[in-house]
Structures are given as structure tokens and as C-alpha cells.
């Protein structure tokens, strides 16, 4: 019991898949936990684990200084926190937001007397409470608040602080998730190519996963080229050669009866960059075309 008393008490608003997974880890680690959810039934199992359920969001906020919010979107955060007294609270918002929403929420919290940290979760619920799964949350906003609560916030999943600008956690979150969707798009195209040939997708999957892992370190070369401004530095496969290969990919897609719509936009950018006379560069020049 003494161990429990020493742990920072946490209020958690939002018991969806993510909130519930986080709640379990705080309870298991002995943190006193007060929860609230719009649909109260989702709290039932947590009560058996020792959580206190508040009848209203206001009561939950009043219960503890550290208030963690993990709701569907920024609109639901607005609805849930409306009318709560946030004066002197340490508000940590793990709801996925845009950088602009996060900055506005930080200012909104400041006007109400709260300290604010924004979070972008780089994990799915099964990774919560499983350190070896490698998940973490990007945090940005008050550095003092991060330092004060890092140990408690690190109970469900790792923590990575990315700066005082409250929008930076969301920006890092969206940047990594955007890259993930690019990977999913490429994988969808690969599976589509083999679909009609009787090749077992389960046989392609490990080959695909290993190839993506092998190619992933190329992002370090991209970063190095962006920093130096020299996109010809350490080039492995130049743009001219890669553009020359694009008809092979498009013809193969056509022969396999697969739409090129996931590949074509990227190939178009590669062609535009080549047309600017950048054949000796890496693919990094595409980034210049994307930034308006
Ligand atoms: N689950 C995932 O894979 C991803 C992983 C990366 C991070 N995301 C973000 O985490 C936030 C919460 O996601 P979640 O998985 O918990 O989402 P749901 O299971 O759908 O639960 C949503 C909770 O939000 C409550 N809620 C929704 N709308 C309202 C509203 N208008 N007023 C009050 N509460 C609202 C909902 O309540 P209920 O439906 O149970 O009554 C849940 O508590 C999210 O930002 C992800 O992008 C998860």
C-alpha cells in the first residue's frame, strides 16, 4: 500500500482502445487512477482493477493534478473539457491532432491556468505495456511538465520529447504516420501484382518485410543530403537510371491488370525533377517539388 501512495495519481479521460490499454498499465504499476468515459460501461473492468470512476469529466479533472486526455479527436476534447476547471492542472493531451490544433490547445489550456503537454502516440494498443514492442509517445510543450511527469507517462509506453513548440509532437507523429501510409501503399501495389498468379501472399510477405527493412536506412542518406544541400552526395542509384526504369513498373502493372494509381504520382514527380536537369541526383530532389 505504501508503494501505491508514492505513485503519482492520474486522471484519464477517454477509455477507447488506447485509453483502456494505458489505464491497465497505470493500475498494474500502482498509480491511483481516476477515469471518466462518455460511455460509462467501458470503465467496468477497470474498476475491478482498482480504478475510481468519476460521474462527470469535471469530477475526474478535480480529482488529480495530472490529467491525461486520450479521445477520438480535437472536437471530442473540446466537448469533454468544456466546463471543467483546469486551473493549476497538468494537462497532457494524447489525442491525435494537427500541429495547429495542438498549438491552439496549448494556448487554450494556458488561458485556463493549466500547464500543457501534447502527445503523439507511436504505438497501437497491443504495444502498450510491452516495452520490447518499441512503441513510444512524442511529447512537446512545457519542458518542466515533461520532466515532472516523465516517469508516470513512461509507464504505458516510452517517451520522446521533441521540443517546447506544442505542435511538434503532432508534426512528428503525422510525419511518421504519413511515411507509414506510403509503405502501406507500396505493399498494396506489390500484393496486387501477384494476386492473379496463384502466388501465396504469405510467401511474399516475409520477402516484402525484409526488403522494406533493408531499404529503410536510405532515409539517413536523404537526411544527410538535405542538410548539405548536395543531392548528389553518396548517391547509390541516380534519378536518371530510376526514371528509365519506371516504364517497366508501369508496363508490369498493366500486364498484371493492376491500376498504377498508387505509383504514378511519385513517378511523375521523379520525371519532373529529371526534366530540371537533375539526373545525377538521388531521389531527394522530389522533396523540393513537394514543398510549396
Ligand atoms: N488505436 C490506434 O491504433 C491508434 C494508435 C495511435 C494513436 N491513436 C489515437 O489515440 C486516440 C484514441 O484512440 P482510441 O484507439 O482509443 O480510439 P477509440 O477506441 O475510437 O476511442 C475513442 C474515445 O473517444 C471518446 N469519444 C469520441 N467522441 C467523443 C465525444 N464526442 N465526446 C466524448 N467522448 C468521445 C470515446 O468515447 P465512447 O465512444 O467510448 O463513449 C472513446 O473513449 C485517437 O486520437 C487516435 O487517433 C490510436
TrEMBL record:
Keyword presence, Oxidoreductase: yes
Domain 6-phosphogluconate dehydrogenase NADP-binding residue range list: 10-151
Start and end residues of each NADPH-dependent reductive aminase-like C-terminal domain: 165-290
Keywords per UniProt: Oxidoreductase
The keyword Acyltransferase appears for this protein: no
Xref: InterPro entries: 6-PGluconate_DH-like_C_sf (IPR008927), 6PGD_dom2 (IPR013328), 6PGDH_NADP-bd (IPR006115), HIBADH-related (IPR015815), HIBADH-related_NP60_sf (IPR051265), NAD(P)-bd_dom_sf (IPR036291), RedAm-like_C (IPR048666)
Any one Pfam family match given in the protein's UniProt record, by short name: NAD_binding_2
Superkingdom field: Bacteria
UniProt similarity note: Belongs to the HIBADH-related family.
Protein name (database record): NAD(P)-binding domain-containing protein
Amino acid at each position: 500500500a505504501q508503494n501505491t501512495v508514492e505513485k503519482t495519481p492520474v486522471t484519464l479521460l477517454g477509455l477507447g482502445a488506447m485509453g483502456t490499454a494505458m489505464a491497465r498499465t497505470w493500475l498494474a504499476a500502482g498509480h491511483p487512477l481516476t477515469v471518466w468515459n462518455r460511455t460509462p460501461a467501458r470503465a467496468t473492468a477497470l474498476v475491478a482493477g482498482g480504478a475510481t470512476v468519476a460521474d462527470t469529466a469535471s469530477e475526474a479533472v478535480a480529482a488529480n493534478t495530472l490529467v491525461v486526455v486520450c479521445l477520438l479527436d480535437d472536437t471530442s476534447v473540446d466537448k469533454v473539457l468544456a466546463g471543467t476547471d483546469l486551473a493549476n492542472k497538468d494537462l497532457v493531451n494524447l489525442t491525435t491532432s494537427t500541429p495547429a490544433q495542438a498549438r491552439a490547445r496549448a494556448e487554450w489550456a494556458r488561458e485556463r491556468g493549466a500547464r500543457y503537454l501534447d502527445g503523439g502516440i507511436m504505438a497501437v494498443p497491443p504495444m502498450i505495456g510491452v516495452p520490447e514492442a518499441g512503441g513510444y509517445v512524442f511529447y512537446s510543450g512545457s519542458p518542466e511538465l515533461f520532466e515532472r511527469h516523465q516517469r508516470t507517462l513512461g509507464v504505458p509506453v516510452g517517451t520522446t520529447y521533441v521540443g517546447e513548440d506544442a505542435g511538434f509532437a503532432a508534426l512528428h507523429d503525422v510525419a511518421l504516420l504519413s511515411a507509414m501510409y506510403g509503405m502501406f501503399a507500396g505493399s498494396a501495389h506489390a500484393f496486387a501484382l501477384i494476386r492473379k498468379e496463384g502466388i501465396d501472399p504469405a510467401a511474399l510477405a516475409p520477402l516484402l518485410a525484409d526488403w522494406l527493412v533493408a531499404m529503410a536506412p536510405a532515409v539517413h542518406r536523404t537526411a544527410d543530403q538535405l542538410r548539405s544541400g548536395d543531392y548528389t552526395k553518396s548517391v547509390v542509384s541516380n534519378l536518371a537510371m530510376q526514371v528509365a526504369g519506371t516504364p517497366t513498373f508501369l508496363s508490369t502493372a498493366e500486364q498484371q491488370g493492376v491500376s498504377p494509381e498508387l505509383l504514378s504520382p511519385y513517378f511523375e514527380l521523379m520525371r519532373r525533377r529529371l526534366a530540371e536537369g537533375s539526373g545525377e541526383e538521388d531521389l531527394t530532389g522530389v522533396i523540393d517539388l513537394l514543398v510549396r
